Amino acid sequence: MRGRTETASQLPAFIRRKYPTYTSYATATVDQIYGRANLDSAQCWRARTFVSSVLENLGNGHFQLRPLPLVAQSTPMFGTLLEDFDSDGNLDLLCVGNFDGADPLAVRYNSGYGLYLNGDGKGNFLQKSATGAGFSVPGEGRGLACVAGKDGVTIVAANCNAAATSVTLRQRPLRIDPAKRCTHAILDLGDGRTRRQEWYWGSGYLSQSSQMLLLPSATATGDLYSGEKKVEEIGK
Fold first, then answer.
1. DSSP structure class, residue 109
2. Adjacency order of strands within the sheet including 229-234
3. Does the pLDDT at position 44 exceed 80?
4. Does residue 187 lie within any of the structural domains?
5. Of the four, 9, 181, 187, 203, which is 20 to 30 A from 102 by CA?
6. Within 13 Å, how many C-alpha atoms sit on residue 68's CB side?
């Protein structure tokens, strides 16, 4: 139960008139404050987990919730990127977060410096040092985007309030023509594995990645799709 000041900020006239002192409010029960009839008719919403997780699409309408490692639970995540950053054929996860605007009674959620989680190809993500990888966003990161830059470079850009930081990657991106309105690609990684990679509308606050692919090797091939329609072949 929140204190009188916090409750009165939501129900000012009701609380201050019914409980003019902190003592009268502190000694009242929940039923006395709100009324049993109001509580019985109120909408009740329950959050079953607050764990930052990956939701894996298993196909045929089935999904599996995979909690991220403990280090990913220390601060809220806002900007995320799912790409093969180390060219091993497995998708990796890059995240930024932190939040200083929490309730005054709570601490600031600002212990993050950016997070790089290495994918094992089985739906699991393992902790790697983001700063050791040359990526550090210690402030309030809100958005994250992967952009195909000029001269064939790949740029990861993070939005941190009014400031921004960026990292240039070694991988050369394969640009996808936006006019083809591609939704996903089916990749043959050249080692017996295949991977479906989708393009999303947004990857954090006011952030949008380029339509591009980071192919793990020169032997990788694939097909580009717009919905169910194949629109282009890659490397064939």
1. B
2. 194-198, 184-188, 221-226, 229-234
3. yes
4. yes
5. 203
6. 25
